[in-house]
Amino acid sequence: MSLRCLSVQNLRNLQSIDIEPATRLNIIYGANGSGKTSLLEAINILSLGRSFRSRKHKTMIQYDQPSFTVFGKVESVSDVAGQVSVGVQRERSGDGIIRIDGRNVLSAIELAENLPVLAIDSSAFDLLGGSPSVRRQYLDWLVFHVEPSFLSVWKGIQKCLKHRNSLLRRDKIDPLQLAPWDAELARLAHSIDEMRARVFERLSEAYRGLVGGLEGLSDVALNYHRGWDREQTLEALLAEHQQRDIDLGYTRQGPQRADIRVMVGRHLAADTLSRGQQKIVACALLIAQGLVFSQQTDRQCVYLIDDLPAELDAHFRATLAGWLCDMQAQVFVTGVDQEILLAAWPDKLKTQDCTKMFHVEHGAVKEVELPSIAV
Ligand SMILES: Nc1ncnc2c1ncn2[C@@H]1O[C@H](COP(=O)(O)OP(=O)(O)OP(=O)(O)O)[C@@H](O)[C@H]1O
Ligand SMILES: [Mg+2]
């Protein structure tokens, strides 16, 4: 998959942008505040209907403008003849329009099917040090894409939890009322756990393949926790701890508590690794996600790497660039310094066929020539 055209109007400081990205590497550089992250946000909006930086559409609309628009043409590698047009418009009132090939679409889920995007920005650190929900979402993104029944099972779990938790909060509870929800929750939990565990195994293998050779990081391991005790069924646990759940007013154990722990021996990686080491491990997790995605679906993700040089030394910058290069994915990378950004990539990628460079200045984006030594 690759994004072949991108137009943006009135998104943050980007007033009117039209670019034709390269199929492999797009280097976007410019001063602080010039609009680089905003450009990546625009691409993310074409994939998810929203930005990776904020869920607030209003703050993204350019001051004094009524709406922003992002439009793109996506080419799928398996179907070179077929380009899909995607567009997203958001109004200040909160209304939005999503269009795919000229037809209005109600759910943003269809966008991700046409343009699956993975973003690596400063929030990547949350994969190690953030709350379990971040890692659960990370795992579930992949489970959603590779396990066809995931969405219906996940929705079923949300429904069970909603009903069970509202019963738990009532003044008087008839245990007989809880029983059917417990049984259904346990059934669905078993199903989602099987899917997650299957996908986790593949993810973990891909991750080990990436970090295995890196000095000081080969013993950073991933552990999957399903959200309840390994030794017991969830139904038995829910019955056993019913009073505790009533006291708390919510369901304490279950698939809604699943997590992936990133460990160095017996310690959490977030507590022991340096910032740069944490960032490269987080990047490896996100690259592994894209690798399993492409193995399982025969499609490629587009990668958005915001501020690639931040926290990484030249060795880790080249490591990350090497992983992305091997994946043959379309990549958009940003940074302040053009030379540092360009130096990270293998020479074979720095040709006019594969790579384009864009300079961002005060919200305007201009394609510039690759330096001649690299061509
Ligand atoms: N709604 C908005 N309307 C107009 N300008 C905005 C709006 N929201 C943010 N901006 C401005 O857009 C500019 C671009 O921000 P952006 O985060 O894209 O910059 P950047 O190039 O990524 O900078 P850095 O190198 O510091 O990360 C900033 O100057 C910001 O103040
Ligand atoms: Mg930025």
Write a compact overview of the structure shown.
With 375 residues, this protein is α/β, with parallel strands linked by helices. The protein has 13 helices and 15 strands. The mean pLDDT is 93.
Distinctive features:
single chain, Glutathione S-transferase Yfyf (Class Pi), Chain A, domain 2, 2 domains, Rossmann fold, six-stranded mixed sheet, binds adenosine-5'-triphosphate, alpha/beta, six-stranded antiparallel sheet, 375 residues, binds magnesium ion
Describe this structure in words.
By secondary structure, the chain is α/β, with parallel strands linked by helices. The chain folds into two domains: 2-116 and 307-374, Rossmann fold (3-Layer(aba) Sandwich); 128-268, Glutathione S-transferase Yfyf (Class Pi), Chain A, domain 2 (Up-down Bundle), CATH 1.20.1050.90. 42% of the residues lie in helices and 24% in strands. It has helices at 36-48, 57-60, 109-114, 126-129, 132-146, 150-168, 175-211, 234-240, 242-248, 269-272, 275-297, 314-327, 338-343; strands at residues 2-11, 14-19, 25-29, 67-76, 79-91, 96-100, 103-105, 117-120, 220-225, 259-264, 267-268, 302-305, 331-335, 355-361, 364-368. α6 (150-168) packs across α7 (175-211). The protein is globular and about 75 Å long. It starts with a strand and ends in a 7-residue tail after the last strand. 40% of the residues are buried. Residues 36-37, 306-307 line the site of magnesium ion.
